Amino acid sequence: MTAITATAVATATATAAAAAVTDTSVSTPIDLTDVELFASNNHHAAFRRLRAESPVYRNPSADGTSFWALTRYDDITAAYIDHDAFSSLHGAILGGSFRTGGGDTASNEMLVASDPPRHRILRRVMHPPFGPGMVERIQHSVRTLVSRAVDDLRADGGCDFALDFAPLLPIGALMAMFSIGVEEARHVVGLTRRMVGYRDAALTDVSGDERLRLAHAQSEIFEYFADLLDERGDATGDDDVVGMLRRAEINGEPLTDAQLLYACMNIAVGGNETSSYTICSGFLALLENPQEWARLRAEPTLLSGALDEIMRWGSTNAYVQRVTTRDVVVRGVPIAAGEIVTLWNVSANRDPDQFPDPDRFDITRSPNRHLSFGAGVHRCIGAPAGNVELTEAFHALLGSGLEFRTAGDPVRLRSNFILGFTSLPIEIGA
Ligand code: HEM
Hints:
Elements: H1 6-14, H2 35-39, H3 43-53, E1 56-60, E2 66-70, H4 73-81, E3 86-87, E4 99-100, E5 103-104, H5 118-126, H6 132-156, E6 158-160, H7 161-165, H8 168-178, H9 182-196, H10 210-232, H11 241-247, E7 249-250, E8 253-254, H12 257-288, H13 290-298, H14 303-314, E9 319-324, E10 328-330, E11 333-335, E12 340-344, H15 345-348, H16 383-399, E13 403-406, E14 411-412, E15 421-423, E16 425-429
Parallel strand pairs: 2-12
Antiparallel strand pairs: 1-2, 3-9, 4-5, 6-16, 7-8, 9-12, 10-11, 13-16, 14-15
Helix pairs in contact: 6-8, 6-16, 8-9, 8-12, 8-16, 9-10, 9-12, 10-12, 12-14, 12-16
Bound molecules: protoporphyrin IX containing FE.
Protoporphyrin IX containing FE binds next to helix 12 and helix 16.
């Protein structure tokens, strides 16, 4: 990898655009791999500084490597759209690609880790599993679970929202998508939770090598789906995701075992952690802004717009990773081919140039073109499913007639990739 020093950047920028950035460092170093920054909720302040001081930032990592971080809305949108220069072949998470002996076995086999034209083919395979029929099944499944959970909440007087309520969203989705029972779906959510939370002692044993731990968590999910596919055998007649994937073809051939596994893995990892953590950050934002909760209670038709603000506010998928395929210049800063570039949705979503008064939670914010679902060809294919899960959950909570308040300090997930909560105690209040 080519090292680009601040001096080299300064020289290059002399001939670049007038608004060019002349330094890629900041007064006090910020390490975006430091999970404490996110667990302590101090990341917004860090991104505020980066957007102002060094919007194209070279992040030094403890292991001596480094990567680029884009923090401004316009730069991030442009990188999302320029998929020729910013490749997804190495996966969306830093250090998280599926490497075996140096290669990346998921490259151009898993949807999120593919580039066009291959991406177009893989995305077509995924259309039926995310079509309107499946979204409707997810809606019914989640509706049943959350309405029971609200009854329990009423009876118990409170719960740990992060543990007892939020996981029901992906559990309901998995039950509908894979025709599995509630306990099995809970088990799958546990597996993906450990993978995404591989740096959090609340979710996993954090001793030993981090990369091995992540690889082990990934392999557990593969094993689960390998067994499921095996058990279901030739499921081509089934009307769930397994049946849809078994019927799918690539170049006239059925999907290989590896392609089937990658598709299941992408659906489970893409959906499990995102919607459940988004309901946590959204619910907490409403509890902390009671006037917005009251507006929503009074006018439930505001929910659809409120969900956009909840998505923007939580920015659950904090960043995605890309790797440059050629030399590029971003805001006057040259970035060499082969460099890792991270696009920080969480920062773009608080960029004051795009969102006036960005740290105000406003359920009627308009326009609200948040980047929480990404942008460009990889924009979240599960967005309608995620929206319907969140809609059902908020309908149940708002329609309960109950008022809620926090009953202890929320505990944030120790992750810089997925922003969530491992605990969010709530109780019924006046
Ligand atoms: C509700 C919260 C959700 C958030 C914040 C979210 C976020 C994202 C983001 C940012 C991307 C783009 C990744 C990239 O550009 O590299 C993405 C892609 C994807 N998401 Fe979601 N997602 C959500 C819900 C879901 C659900 C419910 C599912 C599945 C049931 C899902 C499955 C996927 C898949 C398969 C992709 C890959 C799409 C592609 O590469 O073409 N997501 N998601």
